Amino acid sequence: MTVTQRETSHAPSPETDAPVGVWLNGARGSVATTAITGLLALRAGMADSTGCVTDTGMLRDAPLVSWTDLVVGGHDIVDTPLEKKAESLVDSGVIPAPVLAAVRGSLPEVEQNLRTGYDARTETGPLAEVVDRLAGDIEEFRARHGLSRVVVINVSSTEPPADHRPEHDDLDALTRALADPDDKALPASSVVAYAAFRAGCGFVDFTPSTGARLPALEMLAQRERVPFAGSDGKTGETLLRTALAPMFTSRALHVLSWAGVNLLGGGDGATLEDPRNARSKLSSKSGVLPALLGEDVTAPLHIDNVPDLGDHKTAWDHVSFEGFLGVRMSMQLTWSGVDSTLAAPLVLDLARLTAAAHRAGHVGPIEELGFFFKDPIGTDEHALAEQAQALASWANGLDGRGDS
Length: 404
Known about the structure:
The structure is a single chain. The chain is of the alpha/beta class and 404 residues long. It contains 14 helices and 11 strands. It is globular and about 70 Å long.
């Protein structure tokens, strides 16, 4: 299979301080394995960058590291070899067989960079020791490969929303709680964010989990002078909603209800079958329509696990709206997508953009990356066109020389 590279691909730039590490939490999962395989295919010239926003003309002036200068490592709590996981994704139609055949020989090199992650169900002892171990793995990875910086991206399974605690609002109090072996003061995603910041890395949460969305962790990011972004990658139904909902408001049409049903299988389907985990996903999706329509709207939303669908996701939406003279009308639509195939290029985009932000001296939440998320940190803007404009203006204006 031969592919012509797109004309807008970025050439390597000495101003990006290559190479850059991409540390994936959940590195053996479907999204991570698809991203890893896709990156290896891009580097080998066996795939083009369709789906990668950073390789479009919109971001042609952004100071981004090249695909060949991204080095991948990560944590996971399972030990399935990447090659076996990739084979299963070929069987389910996520990764084309010729692509895996072309990059299979490079997967062991990535495998050597994977380490055991934090499993809250089995690991004992104080969380401070967990943070030390995770941060140490990332620091060793950076040193071993001579990396200018590392971006940590959480692509692990969705976890339930975390109950608020006073320690979440104060970094000193949180640090003391982490030293107590009997105190599990942070959910797993926030432990990962803490470790990323401790290691001096930017952090991206591609999931709806708590991650860095705690005041104490923002304090830590500010102290360590690192950026972060999230949360919950916008790949399917919500992407469609953020493009279409502004159409109704711009044409003065009144939306009465917007109902949705999501059918999916695979690991995500099984995870979201647990109502506690589904609450995080439903919460991240629920704020989009009121923000875009300017008012509350009846918007029932269901997520159902259909195991035989695997990574193929179907979303049905029914929109009831009112026009001139109160005449009722409706719009119905179906989105059928392959979840990991849609998510993986965005993970790679976010690695490049977050590394560029870190290089340019950005500290704290990167609101301009809201384009990629259902529940963007640091901004209430959800309209896709406005988000794209903000992203382009920001990324193309980054100073590639920055503060190293």
